[in-house]
Write a structure and sequence with these properties.
With about 270 residues, the protein is of the alpha+beta class. The protein has seven helices and ten strands. The longest helix is centred in the last third of the chain and has 22 residues. The protein is elongated. The two termini are about 30 Å apart. It binds a DNA duplex (14 and 14 nucleotides) through helix 6.
DNA sequence: TCCTATGTTGTATG
DNA sequence: ACATACAACATAGG
């Protein structure tokens, strides 16, 4: 489900538990979400204190102290985090439940495309320290974008924007929103953009990321109808800019929505 | 019953 | 080695 801003939103559902100590850990070790686990959650986290909440694109990291450890969470397609009062009876798809004195911190994910990772020790694990620059950081600049578009020259832009190695946090709806605002057809080969369109794409990408963080980031706000967001989900939607019917088709392996008038195929 | 779903990874192919 | 395309993963809901 979640992209950049939704990930931030869900990560901070656990905020009230900062400073609290984990008294009990419940999990189903055989669930797919634990496929790359490198240490046992109960042994590693019990008695340890939640110190910090961090997010990076679609990745989350919860820092625990005394002893030090790193809990990674990826929500996949259907994952969520919630914080509920105790006592709490775990639901069918609650794969990890951390209990403190007052709260249950719950990771739930019916489809199990999400993932839980865990690393014990003071040094950050590679799965956290090796992430690419965030889209909203200064290190993500125009030359960075240009170089990547050149390397992925023949792939459709829609597929390229979904690559987390360069665009951490961008998902299906954000990619469509970016291309729609930029007026670029999603099937356009990444290497074929003029310098002027590359500049437009860069600015639009930053804008969509920052708008998403403002609207969804801390509370859950629904994006306004002036975005493509509210019109792209099902057949029959209308473009809020042109008033014409939106088109939907699979591009880059994902359902893609665009406005033919604004985003002409070249 | 059939289709879809805000994601990533492994594998095949060029 | 690199880039691209696609099946596979598992479940719920329309």
């Amino acid at each position: 489900m979640p992209e950049l801003a939704e990930v931030y939103y869900y990560a901070h559902r656990w905020e009230p538990a900062i400073g609290e100590t984990i008294t009990k850990v419940r999990h189903h070790p055989r669930a797919r979400v634990f496929r790359r686990l490198e240490s046992d959650p109960a042994e590693t986290l019990t008695g340890s204190r939640l110190a910090r909440i961090l997010t990076h694109g679609k990745q989350m990291c919860f820092r625990f102290a005394q002893p030090d450890s790193w809990l990674g969470v990826h929500l996949g397609m259907s994952g969520k985090l919630t914080l509920v009062p105790l006592p709490y009876a775990p639901d069918k798809h609650d794969h990890l439940v951390l209990e403190t004195g007052g709260h249950a911190l719950v990771f739930t994910d019916p489809r199990m495309f999400g993932e839980i990772r865990l690393h014990a020790g003071a040094e950050p694990p590679a799965w956290w320290s090796g992430l690419p620059p965030e889209c909203l950081s200064a290190a993500f600049d125009q030359p960075t974008l240009d170089a990547f578009l050149k390397r992925r020259a023949k792939a459709p832009l829609k597929a390229v924007l979904l690559m987390q190695e360069r665009f951490p946090g961008i998902g299906n709806w954000m990619a469509d929103e970016i291309l729609w605002r930029a007026g670029i057809h999603p099937a356009t080969p990444a290497g074929s953009l003029t310098p002027s369109l590359r500049s437009t794409l860069f600015q639009t990408l930053k804008e969509v990321c920052s708008d998403a963080m403002c609207v969804i980031g801390s509370d859950w706000g629904t994006p306004p109808d002036s975005w493509l967001f509210n019109h792209r989900w099902q057949d029959g939607g209308m473009c809020p800019k042109t008033g014409a019917r939106l088109q939907r088709e699979e591009i880059g392996g994902r359902t893609t929505c665009w406005s033919p008038k604004r985003q002409p195929r070249r």
